[in-house]
Amino acid sequence: MSSAPLFLNRDNTQRGSLGRTVLSRRAVLFGAAGIGAASVAGLSALNLPTAAANDLRIYSTEEWGANAPNGDIAINRLNYRPSKIVVHHMDSPNVTDYSQEAAFKIARDCQSWHVNNGWADSGQQFSVSRGGYVLEGRHGSLAAAQDGSYFIEGIQAAGCNRETIGIENEGRYEGELPTDAQWAALVQLIAYLCRQYGLDSSAIIGHRDCSSTACPGSAFYGALGQLRADVDAALAGGGGAPTPPPEPEQPEDPGMSWPVTKRGDSGNAVLAVQRLLQHHGWQLEADTSFGPATEQAIFEFQSANGLGVDGAVGQETWPALIVVVRQGDSGSAVIGLQELLNKHGARLEVDGVFGSATDQAVREFQELQHFDADAIAGPITWKGLVTV
Ligand SMILES: [Zn+2]
How far is the CA of 167 from the centre of ligand 1 (A)? Predict the structure, then answer.
């Protein structure tokens, strides 16, 4: 974990079951004050939901253990807002395991089914489990929603993919409705997406409105009017809270650009690229030489993050790649930081642990470069280390 968790908790209550201590940098969490339980009667007597109905917490692909997308297939970033939100059912069994573990498993299973279809990644942008867990689907979809100006093109509603984002709901809803927990989470997710993309509840459609399919099942499809009403109520009551504040970062220095780093290059910038890729989960050697393996990893990283996919690390990819590290952090990004500081004259033991010696070395480098000497390695410091 490279930095403080990013979340906005509107009601300040602590619900330990949500595991806030493991929130990732990309997680979204907010309470929805004033929103009651689902108004459509599900099978409430049988439900033992484990996710709190009044919170929206979106688990990123990283958190539920997604595989990297198939880098051979392009994933398109569409630089405009979606106009509709498509509701699906997975047509999967109506299981009664409402745990987070089950939610993460269905997300992984769904990704596997879709990749086995020959797709690059999960087809849908988001999923909701029967236990009410909300999960990012296609890589980059959560960052896109947080931004609110673009989305990642999915494969979820033939004929509508370039105008819509899709939500897969675990279960089969031909003759019954989602669980209360699932319904409440879906309402909060849609309210959030409406806020982020400037939509209202009239944007909600069923998959069968786009394509020739029974999805999302007749019972669920028949309840879309109720879903729109519940989303309206959530929006009116403050649900779908605005995007959390961005992670604190040092301001960008417009006078200095990132060095474009690409295949055939070697040196400090390449070392940084490789260590940062390791931090983000790619397994490659940090040999300071930008060869085919590094290029392939960059293709995958760019695809996964909705960036232009060209295999070169430039003005767009560097900011997505760097990790803000400070005292107390550890891992591959810190190893890279220590190696780069040593190349700039420090004599650190490269142990991947950001302790007081690394803190002091960062501060000295920042002072030397006339940067703000706060001992936090953010964009300006990384840029200095790979440029100077
Ligand atoms: Zn569908």
Answer: 8
